[in-house]
Amino acid sequence: MKAIVSNTDRLQGEIHALSSKNYTTRYLLVSALADGVSTIHYPAHSEDSDAMRRCLIDLGAELHEDAEKMTIRGFGRHPKAIKELNVGNAGAVLRFLMGTAALLPEVTFVNTYPDSLGKRPHQDLIDALEQMGVSVEHQNGRLPIIIRGSKAHGGLIEVSGQVSSQFLSSLLFLTPLLPEDSEIRVLHDLKSKVVIGQTLEVLEEAGIIIHASEDLMHYHVPGGQQYQAKSYTVQGDYPGSAAILAAAAVTNSDVRVTHLMEKSKQGERACVDVLQAMGVDLTHQDGIVHVRGGKGLVAGEFDGDEFTDAVLAMVAAAVFAKGTSRFYNVENLRYKECDRITDYLNELRKAGAHVEERQSEIIVHGRPEGVEGGVEINAHYDHRVIMALTVVGLRSAQGLTIKDAHHVAKSYPQYFDHLKALGAKIELIEE
Ligand SMILES: O=C(O)C1=C[C@@H](OP(=O)(O)O)[C@@H](O)[C@H](O)C1
Ligand SMILES: C=C(OP(=O)(O)O)C(=O)O
């Protein structure tokens, strides 16, 4: 699908935020790891959450769904011994399930997105699993990956957090089910640290006890635990909503996004503070973010690691801010669906933005007058590139054509419909 995004002066209306992808994948997993029937209210529906759902069914979970909720009968510590799992292009799903696969004799994770997930590194998790007696066959730390887990045990586990927090999350989901206690030590740095808060929150809701150090670098996990079957409610999704809020910030707008909890543990909640720091007229009350855009943005400096999945949308807003913005501590954006620094900035440059890259920084020389556009954008298989370039397209004199825009469905299938409902001039063409 191609998205033709035209210059749009005004956005107006109200959007009910989509359900959180990260909470949905976690609630699905802890429900499957429980014995008994759990309920998830308002689960997300996207390619990534569907990938988790599909894989858990393959592993023996029983799922039923109506319009508002899903019930899941879990497989506890005994997933079905299947041969193959296909996680699509979902990084978190792959990494979390590589841990679960350690409960099985042999599973192959196939490589269906060789140019996206197929390029992403998993070596740090592989190293950790090997310390636990799991045998892993892989292609230089990449897919396809075969996990042989029959001998998995707890104990001392060291894992690097330098590339992704998902490796640590994976171990936190697995280790409570092992007979032995585990000590997990995070080596180097822990990137996207805020996301670990979501993992710990969900584990606690599922009745699992984890003793975490205050800096989230050390964990004592008692073994022999059981996940409890529970009832969960998924909150609204900040990373996806950040793109809607950025679109509202760069246009003349009066837009409300509802269902966004002020006290959320999603790091991307910070997009509200970032936009405010850029001078956007915005309020956040009773779960509603209300933007009155069009008054002109100002540049700022931001630690992007605090809102990993909203960085691209915030950079798109900064493209139209007065002055030079800097998003630092973002190197791990290079290991996502594409290289979200080099690939993304190349597309922004094509659109007419003035941007520079460092190894772990994005620098934006803002153009409050707007950009020229009139070019075709390569989506690089990346939903967040698509969402962010759409924001830029709304302020491009000649608009932007985004190729392969269907990849937006990885996290936010309704993105274009939501923007169109607000008045964005977007035409979708099936190819
Ligand atoms: O744990 C999770 O659900 C996620 C963790 C983050 O990844 P990294 O820890 O690799 O930055 C985030 O970017 C991803 O979208 C989802
Ligand atoms: C990077 C993302 O997801 P994942 O790592 O799960 O593929 C994302 O949603 O932006």
Question: Which key phrases capture this entry?
Answer:
431 residues, alpha/beta, UDP-n-acetylglucosamine1-carboxyvinyl-transferase, Chain, 4-stranded mixed sheet, 12 helices, globular, binds shikimate-3-phosphate
Structure description:
The chain has helices spanning 21-32, 47-58, 91-100, 123-131, 166-174, 193-205, 238-250, 271-277, 311-318, 342-351, 383-394, 415-421; strands at residues 2-5, 10-16, 34-35, 37-41, 62-65, 69-73, 84-85, 107-109, 135-139, 142-148, 155-161, 182-190, 211-212, 218-221, 227-228, 231-233, 252-258, 281-285, 288-292, 297-298, 301-303, 321-322, 324-328, 354-358, 361-365, 375-377, 400-402, 426-429. It is α/β, with parallel strands linked by helices and 431 residues long. The strands form 8 sheets. Strands 26-27-1-28 form a 4-stranded mixed β-sheet. It is built from 12 helices and 28 strands. The chain folds into 2 domains: 2-18 and 236-429, UDP-n-acetylglucosamine1-carboxyvinyl-transferase, Chain (Alpha-beta prism); 21-222, UDP-n-acetylglucosamine1-carboxyvinyl-transferase, Chain (Alpha-beta prism), CATH 3.65.10. Phosphoenolpyruvate binds at residues 48, 90-92, 309, 336-337, 384, 411. The site of shikimate-3-phosphate has 13 residues, from α1 and α5.
